[in-house]
Structure formats: structure tokens, C-alpha cells
What does this fold into?
Amino acid sequence: MTHPLGFLDGGGEASRMIRERDWTNHVLGPPETWPGELRSALSLVLNSPESMILCWGPELTFFFNETYFPLLGPRLSWAMGERLDVVWADAWAQAKPIVEAAFEGKRQRFVDLPWTLDTDRGARDTWWTFSYSRILGAEGGIAGLFIFTNETTDRVLSDAALRESEAQFRAFSEATPNHVWAARPNGHLDWFNRQLLTYAGLPAERLTGFMQWGRIVHPDDFAPASERWAEALRSGGTYDAEFRIRRFDGSFRWFLVRAEPVRAEDGTILRWVGTSTDIDERRRHAAALEQFTVRLEEQVRERTADRNALWQLTPDLMLRCSFEGVVTATNPAWLAVLGWDEAELLGASLLDLVHPDDHERTLEGMGELADGRGHPRFDNRYLCKSGAYRWISWSTRPGHGAINAIGRDITLEKERAEALAKAEEALHQSQKMEAVGQLTGGLAHDFNNLLAGISGSLELIQTRIHQGRTGEVDRYLSTAQAATKRASALTHRLLAFSRRQTLDPKATNVNALVLGMEDLVRRTIGPEITLRIQLADGGWLVRVDPNQLENALLNLCINARDAMPDGGCLTIATAHESFDEAMARERDLPAGDYLSLIVSDTGTGMAPDVLARAMEPFFTTKPIGVGTGLGLSMIYGFVRQSGGQVQMRSGPGAGTCATLYLPRDEGEEVQLAEPRADEPVTPAQEGQCVLVVDDEAFVRMLIVDVLEDLGYRALEAEDGPSALAILATDARIDLLVTDVGLPNGMNGRQLAEAARELRKALKVLFVTGYAETAVLNADHLGDDTRVVTKPFALADLTRKISMLVSGA
It folds into this structure.
């Protein structure tokens, strides 16, 4: 029994789509009810290997086979059984007249018809070859349409590309100034560009074929040109020949003629494409060059004779030697300058004549020459036959496997330069001694005054004690102590100027520091001077020693006060500034962010010569006995040691402005607690021990006496190694008190670091006059470390020892 849907057999995926569609409400009804004509036509379409469409009934119900799938693109999932005008709605305006004509009985076939469609490759321009034919029903009426279709897009585009390529080749051939021609695979010339035809003055048909083209080849060149062409045709290789071609006026010019085969994918030669390049000028130049070469050889012979004459006559040394220094040629100047004739030098080693101190450097220079590097100037000393040495300045160049050199005697020049250097050194020494004299003179003046006060007070104390007049001793002690404090302040200023003072830098809020000093500054400058304070918003932090910065600010305010004896205005300001490379270079600073502290006044100002020396040590315009002249130099040294810079502007009657640039610190503000003068001293507990390290015996004695008065047990050492020997024992040590400057190869900071390797929690008190090679900074200080500066007050020493040991 025949299956009711057997007509769908063999249709593959297209048949499946018909079976799975819901035909309940479709105009055709279920497939089991379809008429025989539809079943037969549909079976034909589904089983066709060609791309086919069937449109059935007045509604033009759309059917298609598997071969047609790629053409439907996004329509594939729903197009089976849909109306034709719905499926191809985007092309219906173009398709409708064709369909109507087919229904009228007009059979039509279209070849390479352009059509813009949404396909499985997206919306694009396509080309199609297809035919329409109607299907008649059993009663003779039109039942539907057969549409046989084939996409020809690839062939159309390929043909267009080929035509475009040929057009481009012809356009390029016509645009190039060279002659361009083409030939068939057998070598028959059949195309020439306009430039070649114009040059020859002949129509293309007069040149077609190699023999025809041979009419314009020079008779003497035709045979070799033909032989090469025949060889290229046999081998399939490049044709390359130079020969003369006749111009329309009968003259001949030389051409470089080349041809390459154009091959199919299988290697078969399809065409030959050739060019003819005019090389007549090049040939003429080559001939001229040949003549020039002949003349040049003659000139070389002449100049060689001139060079030989120069070789003989020049007073400069001329040398040729191997890269190992073996002499192969010298000129007569060697005899005149050094006393050696050529017979003595040939075959000898040049290094035997070089001064021993220059030997290694000369070997290096010869190695550079062996590497191809010459020397515009290379100076060394050579032995004379008399036994003396003379300086020779060489110009050297490697060439032809040897060293070529010309040398000039510069002994006299060297002697003059040495004499000049000695004179300059003497001048520098004189200037240095003048500066030292100025420094020591000012220092001696101040220190002699202070020492006079100290020594006189001590003598009077001794005298009054012997006299039994002890009631006057306190007055002399106060005088000696005051002089000692002034001497200490003077040394600190000197260390600040030399940037060797011991600093304790912290992240400091300069705005807060200025506000904290406002009352002190007002009392210092007096009521006649107006104080203005202008601070930048959100003041940046800087890493400085706040005590030193306070001293610097106060010093600048005092200078401003002294410059305004009749009153005026003093301004203290801060500002935030960011310097790029150029701006920082103008201020002798690294690029970056800086806080500037500015102190300006409306005082008398300074003349240019005074401003230029304002920061020199001991330079002052004040009367003798009024100031040391170290104030500004101390500020300059402190700021430079802190990584900043000082700039001053001033003029007579225009006041003075001093700006301190301090590098910004990104850390958080830190304030280390310092003991107050009125804090009680915690007495030592039983067994507590302190190790004291100082190379000065009297300093150790003072510190040990203080410790014993407090109840501590004291151990002593005079340098780092002996201190480490004590630390390596089992002895109890609660505190290390050490000078920073110690002898025997280990300073106090290094001792502290080594000590903490042995005893992790050891507390340290540094005693220092200056920091020597190791500046104590925030990395060396903390809650378990303090610094006391020589000369120190015993009360200050006592409080810091007590604070560290007790942990208060």
C-alpha cells in the first residue's frame, strides 16, 4: 500500500520541514489532501540536485529543496509553505513583474541578474541566473510556477576583477615612462603601450611578432637579442638583455629590455610581460666614468709622487705598523725628532719605545685600532736615542690591515701646560688660604672671647676658694656656663653651615610651627613692626628637624627686625609649589613638590655686592661685637642638609625676601616626646647597668659620675670593638651610651646596629659633637633611641638616661 506522504521521500531536510510544519489552518490543508499535480511537482523539486523553487496556487505557496537553503539566509527557519511575496518581501517589487509575466505564459530566463538579498552571508549584492515556467493543472488552468535558479555572484565578481586588473595594467602601462609590451606564450609580440609606439613612430601592427619588432633593433644587436629571447622561451626564465632600439628620427638609444612570464596556478605560461628602460645616459656615463678612471689613475700616480715628497719633507712623524706594533715604515722626521733612523726602526716593536707609564694605555689604543676605531688625538711619550722622552700627539687610522699614524712633537706644549697648572694650583691654594684665614679669623675672635670668659671665671673660682670667699663662686660659675652655652651655639652654627650637624628630622607641619611661634616673634620684633602671617591652605608636611627650622625662622625674623629700625612690616608666608625639570634646575633642586617658607620685610635692603655674600660664614655688615655673621650661613647649611634650597631677593630701599624651599613629605606628622625640664628623674633600680663608650676619658668620667649619682652600675669602653666584647658577655646592660665619632674603624651608629644584633631590645643614647660620616636621621631614632649634643647640660643628660631606662 502506498504511503500518503511518499511524495516527500528523498527530499532530506526540506522534506522534514514540510512534515513538521503545522498545516491545519493553511490554505492548502494537510499534505495528505494535496492534489496529485502538487505532489508530483513537489517530488521533482525536492529530489533535484539543482537549486529549485515551487510556487503553488494563487497564493504562491513557497516550496524549495535543500540546494536552495544557503540562499534563504535568515528566512530558512520559517519560509517553507509561506507565501512568495512574504518570503521575498525585500525584493518583491523586482520579482512581481517577472511572476506576472510567467503566469501570462511567458517563459523567461535571466542571466547574471543583479539582486540585493539577505542571504546566509548577510545582506549583500548578488547575481543570479534563473528561469520561470508555469505548471498547468488537470483542468488546464495555471496551478503554479517552477523556478530554476543558480547564483553566479562569484563568477560575475571574478570576471569584473579580471577586467579591472587588465584595465589597471593597461592604465599603469600607459602611465609609466618606460616602454611596456606583452607577448603570447610562444613569444609572439602582440601588444605595446603608447610610449613604445610613439618612440618607434610605427603602428602596433608593424611591430607585432618578434621578427617584425626586430626591424627597430640595431642590426649589430639583433642576433644576440634573438638568441636570449629563444633561450627564455625554452627555459621559462626571465629575459634580460641590453641592446639599441631605433627612434622615429632614425637615431638609436640603448635600452635594458626585461620580460617575465605570467603563469597559471599549474605553472603554465599564460603571457609574457616586458619592459624596455632607456639606459642610454647610463651607458654614456659609464663610458665617461671609464675615461675618468683612466685619468684618475694618472692623478693617483702624480699624487703618490707628491705624497712621497711630503713623506720625506714633513717635520711630523709618519708611521705605518701592524696592529701588534711591528714597524713597517717611517719617514725621516723620526731621525730629526727622536734620533732613530728607518733602518733601526723597521721590524722593531713600537712598544719598546713607549714610556712604561704609557704602555698599558697604548696597548688599549692599538686594540681599538684593530677594532676599526681611529683616534683624532692620542698622546703618549716616546724614547729618544739620547735616553730622554718626548711627548708625541698622534692622529691614527686603521686601513689595509695596518695602523697609519701622523705624530707631532708636543713636549713644549705639555711643559707649558704643566707650568700653567702649577700656577693655577698655587692661585687656588692662595685663595683657599685666604678663605680659611677669613673663617679662622672670625672663629678665633668669637672663641677667644668665650674662652677668656670661661678661663677667667675658673681662675677666679680657684682664687676665691683659696681665699675662702665662696660666696662669689656662683657668679663666676654662671659666667662660665653662659660662655659655654654661647660656644656650643657657635659650633652648632658652624656645623649647620658645613652641613654636618646632627639633625633629628620629622614629618613637620610648617603652618602649625609658624602659628606656634607667633607670640615669640611678636615679642622679638617689638610693637613698631607689623606682623602678617599668610599660610597656604591644607599645609603640606616637610621632613626637617623642627627645632632647627624654628631657629632658622627666628633668625630670619631678627634680621628683618634689625633692617627696620624705624618700624615696618614683616610677613611670614607659606606656599605649595610643584617644579618640573626646568623650574627645579633654575633653583638647583630635583623636580618635585616643595613647601616654601617666605620671610619678607620692608626694611633697608641690601646692595648687590652685600646680597652676593650674605650667606658666607662670618660675613656681616653689623658692627664688631654685634653678631657672629653665621646666621644666614647656618640657615643655608641646615636647609641644604634637609634636601632644600634658600633663595634671597633684596635691593637698597626695597626690603629683603628670603625663601626656604623644603621638599614635601608624604608621611604622617610625627611628634616624639621630649623630656621637660621640670620632669622628675626616676632613680635607678637595683642591678640596672649602663655601658658608656667614648674615646675621651674625661667625657666617660663625667657620664659615669652622673650614672653613679643616679644609682646605676657603669661599664666603660673606649671604642666599638671593646664595647662589642662586653656586649657579647652575659653582663646585664640596660642602656648603651655611645659617642657617634669613635676610633678604630667603627662609629657609634655602626656600634649600635651591631649591638642590637646581639641584644634586640637594647636602648641607645647617642652623644655627639657632629655626625661625622653617618648623619643620624629618623631611621636611626625612635622611642628606644635619643641624642644628646656636646657640650651637654648634665641635667639634660640625666633626664634622657632616666627616660630611656625607665621607658617613661
User: Anything to note?
Assistant: The two ends are 115 Å apart (CA to CA). Confidence is low (pLDDT under 50) at residues 496-501, 623-630, 672-677, 771-775.
